[in-house]
Design goal:
Blueprint lengths: L5 E3 L5 E3 L3 E2 L5 H14 L3 E3 L7 H11 L7 E6 L6 H15 L6 E4 L10 H14 L5 E4 L3 H9 L7 E5 L7 H9 L3 E5 L11 H9 L4 H12 L2 E2 L6 H8 L8 H8 L21
Parallel strand pairs: 3-4, 4-5, 5-6, 6-7, 7-8, 8-9, 9-10
Antiparallel strand pairs: 1-2
Helix pairs in contact: 1-2, 1-9, 2-3, 3-4, 7-8
Length: 280
């Protein structure tokens, strides 16, 4: 079994660089999919309150027989719970759903610029959760540099990660550089552009040169850049394939070629400066 590299966060906590994501996996499929990932060798699971499958992630960890402390689990605060008391209650509910005593990483899911409660107030609640020891680390998701600057101005704890959309078609070099300059690690969601890279001729050719697929070439590009990634699939063969990234290395020329796939219109998901969705 391959050894997944770990990355040390700014508070000293170590996170596996490769994880398993459960976004858009139906609750009824989540236990089996997550248990399969753990059997393959993943030790990092990324979920969120908004995904509606936290309970199933917790059940899969218990069924796996792997000690809780050996599995790094992330969840994210649901939109609509940004007020202090709401955030604290939502975190309590996350632990109850997972049936865990603690969470390895808890994130603000979106900055939500159009809502009345400012995310700085939310971050202060996150700091309370962190100081309680019930979240080993705290961070943010979908924050742009101006969001982070505002956070820095009125907070004490620096986010350990910023989880943003990143893939070969949307490299987010400016945000990644800002994160790095402030000791915040970049987590890349949609690392294969929600499947859009699978037919890319450049990635296919580079992958074939190493006996790999276009998806594996894209994921290896992320690994060599230092991104933390968590591709998702409910198909065991694809789960295994996504894990098989550590027996080859892209050359500098290949990395540069993939860098060149970045495009101005490459974003797939919402723009954090405009997104204010709150689930009903």
């Amino acid at each position: 079994m391959a050894t997944v590299p770990t990355i040390t966060l700014n508070n000293g906590v170590q996170i596996p660089q490769l994880g398993f994501g459960v976004f858009q996996i139906k609750p009824e499929d989540t236990v089996e999919a997550t248990r399969t990932a753990l059997e393959v060798g993943y030790r990092h699971i990324d979920t969120a309150e908004m995904y509606g499958n936290e309970a199933e992630v917790g059940e899969a960890v218990r069924q796996s027989g792997i000690p809780r402390e050996e599995v790094f689990v992330t969840s994210k605060l649901n939109n609509g719970f940004h007020a202090r008391e709401d955030a604290l209650k939502a975190f309590d509910q996350t632990l109850a759903e997972l049936q865990f005593d603690y969470l390895d990483l808890f994130l603000i899911h979106w900055p939500l610029p159009g809502i009345e409660v400012d995310y700085v107030e939310t971050w202060k609640a996150m700091e309370e959760i962190y100081r309680s020891g019930r979240a080993k680390s705290i961070g943010v998701s979908n924050f742009n540099p101006h969001h982070l600057r505002k956070l820095f101005a009125d907070s004490e704890v620096r986010p350990v990660v910023n989880q943003i959309e990143v893939h070969p078609y949307f490299a987010q070099n400016d945000v990644r550089a800002f994160n790095g300059d402030h000791e915040i690690r970049t987590e890349a969601w949609a690392p294969i552009a929600q499947g859009k890279v699978l037919d890319d001729q450049v990635l296919t050719r580079i992958g074939e040169a190493h006996g790999k697929t276009a998806a594996q070439a894209a994921l290896r590009w992320h690994v060599q850049r230092g991104d933390i990634i968590f591709p998702k699939s409910v198909t065991r063969s694809r789960v295994e394939q996504n894990f098989d990234l550590f027996d080859f290395e892209l050359s500098q020329a290949e990395m540069a070629e993939i860098d060149g796939l970045d495009r101005a219109d490459g974003r797939n998901g919402p723009n954090p400066d405009e997104f204010n969705y709150i689930p009903s």
